[in-house]
């Protein structure tokens, strides 16, 4: 195994369809789907879908944690579940057919103890591979420097650390540690910087993080405006494809998983960027909490041109 994914606040993702969302009334849903979720778990699912062999480590608690683990067992995904006292959260998404709108309800999740986090840290210390992917929010009780510690361990063991988080966890990690790759959305990058960005400012802002030594690679996902890649080689842009969006759930996680998988397979950064963009695009073609499918990723990747270099 060359890739370890870390999920400190996993979910059981449930999605359903409904004709119309109305207050007060009992709303009958249908087409219910259930998947193991959370940033790192989703990234591992995508890596496995592409033929990779990742290992996922995550915190798991209560009857809902047992359900999460059972779901992963059925996927055949290698994992290590660290038990906690609290219950693994359940996230719920509803697609309203009359409007095409998507409603996402994501609870905060359980409190965790320092001893629980230390067990995850021990797994990270013991891992010997090429990539450690830390993705998702920090649970209550986790210090804001948790990902920073993991990044330091990865560097000490000559592994590449990939970060996909937001808020204070992102700020603290990029302030105190150097990571290989970070993937903020446009909104997350703006919150990190403390101000809004015009479209033309996004690439240079991402590249400054590279110049400052905070990350070797910065990928900024921008929804309908495509994505930006900033590295020592420059700043590159891929536009979004025009297509019907069925669900945006997991698009960012799909991007990260495909990017890391491609690098592990020997792709260069720009080709990995193309693969990641294809996976993010493929994810919006699937309903609810389903992620991208390999056939869609490969087809879209083959149709994706080389990214355009833009001025920094």
From TrEMBL:
Indicate what this protein is called per its UniProt record: Phosphofructokinase
Residue span, Carbohydrate kinase PfkB domain:
12-293
Name the family the entry cites.
Belongs to the carbohydrate kinase PfkB family.
Mind telling me which SUPFAM superfamilies this protein's record contains? Ribokinase-like
Coiled coil spans: none
Its source organism is Rhizobium alvei
Going by the UniProt record, its keywords in alphabetical order are: ATP-binding, Kinase, Nucleotide-binding, Transferase
Origin organism lineage: Bacteria, Pseudomonadati, Pseudomonadota, Alphaproteobacteria, Hyphomicrobiales
Q: Which PANTHER family match?
A: 1-PHOSPHOFRUCTOKINASE-RELATED, ATP-DEPENDENT 6-PHOSPHOFRUCTOKINASE ISOZYME 2
Spell out the Gene3D superfamilies in the cross-references: 3.40.1190.20
């Amino acid at each position: 195994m060359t890739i370890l994914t870390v999920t400190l606040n996993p979910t059981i993702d449930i999605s359903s369809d409904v004709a119309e969302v109305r207050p007060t009334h009992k709303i009958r849903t249908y087409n219910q789907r259930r998947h193991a979720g959370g940033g790192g778990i989703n990234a591992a699912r995508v890596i496995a879908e592409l033929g990779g062999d990742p290992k996922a480590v995550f915190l798991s608690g209560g009857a809902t944690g047992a359900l999460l683990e059972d779901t992963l067992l059925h996927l055949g995904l290698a994992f290590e579940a660290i038990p906690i006292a609290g219950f693994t959260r359940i996230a719920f998404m509803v697609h309203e057919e009359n409007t095409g709108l998507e409603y996402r309800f994501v609870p905060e999740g359980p409190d965790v103890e320092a001893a629980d986090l230390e067990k995850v840290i021990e797994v990270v210390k013991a891992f010997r591979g090429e990539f450690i992917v830390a993705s998702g929010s920090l649970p209550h009780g986790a210090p804001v420097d948790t990902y920073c510690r993991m990044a330091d361990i990865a560097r000490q063991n000559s592994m590449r650390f990939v970060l996909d988080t937001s808020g204070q966890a992102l700020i603290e990690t990029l302030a105190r540690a150097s990571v290989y790759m970070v993937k903020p959305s446009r909104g997350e990058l703006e919150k990190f910087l403390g101000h809004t960005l015009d479209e033309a400012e996004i690439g240079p802002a991402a590249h400054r993080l590279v110049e400052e030594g905070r990350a070797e690679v910065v990928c900024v996902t921008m929804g309908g405006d495509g994505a930006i890649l900033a590295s020592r080689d420059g700043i590159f842009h891929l536009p979004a494809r025009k297509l019907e969006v069925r669900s945006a759930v997991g698009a960012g996680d799909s991007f990260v998983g495909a990017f890391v998988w491609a690098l592990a397979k020997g792709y260069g950064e720009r080709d990995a960027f193309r693969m990641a963009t294809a996976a993010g695009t493929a994810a919006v073609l699937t309903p609810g909490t389903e992620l991208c499918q390999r056939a869609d990723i490969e087809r879209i990747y083959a149709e994706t041109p080389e990214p355009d270099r833009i001025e920094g």
